Amino acid sequence: MPANWNIDSWKSRPASQQPSYLDPQELNEVLAALRLLPPLVTSWEVDSLKQQLAKAQAGEAWLLQGGDCAESLDDCQSESIASKLKVLLQMSLVLIFGSGQRIVRLGRIAGQYAKPRSSDTESRDGQTLPSYRGDLINRAPFSTDHRRNDPQLLLRGYERSALTLNFIRALSEGGFADLHHTENWKLTFVEDRPEFERYRELVNSLGDALKFIDAISAKPIAELGRVDFFTSHEALHLDYEQSLTRESVRGTGWYNLGTHFPWIGERTRSITGAHVEMLRGIRNPIGIKIGPTAKPEEVVDLVRLLNPENEPGRVTLIHRVGQGKVETILPALIEAIQDCRSQVLWVCDPMHGNTVSTTSGQKTRRFDDVLAELRSAFAVHRSCGSRLGGVHLELTGEDVTECVGGSSGLTEDDLHTAYNTHCDPRLNYEQAMEIAFSIANEIKP
Ligand code: PEP
Ligand code: MN
């Protein structure tokens, strides 16, 4: 356990973005119930992810992290979960072909239910209500009742996370994930889409390679029949995160067992704040979002505090500075980390620095901006003698219309067709696959 840390030490630090509840007694009862419920993941799995992230850091693997901006309780349905898995599996196949490396698959899934907000309130048609903070805290519809913080939602979030994870585990272990049967990963609407055609060609060549491997192997290779799939979410609601943070039965320290990979958001990464204090004491691999205002010294201090032993795989820095700013902001961050010899995995989130509003006030992102930030990030890391080791995306396997652009040429006028997100706009299937093909091109050996 790190010096001066205990499971409650975050409580003496300022905690931003925390909801307040009308009935603290009800909150305490819910937290007590959560503390008795079984963990969602195990410390062995968490350690295994950390080892895989260490490989990505060493240049031997690549991280694909993606999913909803905000999961919703109502969307815990087989179709929606399976389609997220399908798009991530298809993307990872494209990346394996591109890089010849192992791809670490990490969903923003099974617990991504709490959202930081830039304003505490939201006004519509003259009415002002508390902002929507994610289904773990309140509900999205704009009414007094829905926007009231409800402690029972913590239990509902835990349960939906467990149900989601149960389905993911079954799909990853069983026939669904078998590389011999990638037809299982096909989404129903994609038949005539150009990105799917490109993908189909790749799958055909995979079929030939697999026939060859099967012919020369004496027994079936288990690795081809299953996949590793890990979960992540923003560790935002500290009471909730604490209730799932447990001491390992092996005596290897404290782990957040509500997810494999908790991350600290751009709004809560203050070095003196409660979120950093909470995550300082756990053994999980952790992510830190880095926005355009982050100072290099600040990032170095954070990394040192969160990883004093310089343990490989422990810290992933997820930069999200916005296209057009990568060249000016990123080199100093990379150099500062190189100078202090901290081991980190660098990941680019090309979504959160590129959110814009349409003329009608809807949040969107331009596909070209997302791609431009990603390409610049590859180039800047290369020119600094560093390596971009992964990507962090908001995406869905469904045919939504939330981001504009991409090969199908979605425009602002199309956004109303299927704008389903509860929070930030996500890449749809085609846009996500297009990004995967571009990355594959960048990470070619
Ligand atoms: C997010 O990942 O949805 C998010 C809020 O990101 P950031 O902390 O980078 O703004
Ligand atoms: Mn988001």
From TrEMBL:
Biological pathway: Metabolic intermediate biosynthesis; chorismate biosynthesis; chorismate from D-erythrose 4-phosphate and phosphoenolpyruvate: step 1/7
Entry's cofactor comment: Binds 1 divalent cation per subunit. The enzyme is active with manganese, cobalt or cadmium ions.
Catalyzed reactions: D-erythrose 4-phosphate + phosphoenolpyruvate + H2O = 7-phospho-2-dehydro-3-deoxy-D-arabino-heptonate + phosphate
Binding site for phosphoenolpyruvate: R108, E266, R267, K289, R320
UniProt binding sites for Mn(2+): C69, H352, E394, D424
InterPro entries tied to this protein: Aldolase_TIM, DAHP_synth_2
Protein origin, superkingdom: Bacteria
Ranges for region Disordered: 1-20
Uppermost EC category: transferase
Pfam families reported for this sequence: DAHP_synth_2
EC nos: 2.5.1.54
Recorded family membership: Belongs to the class-II DAHP synthase family.
Protein name stated in the entry: Phospho-2-dehydro-3-deoxyheptonate aldolase
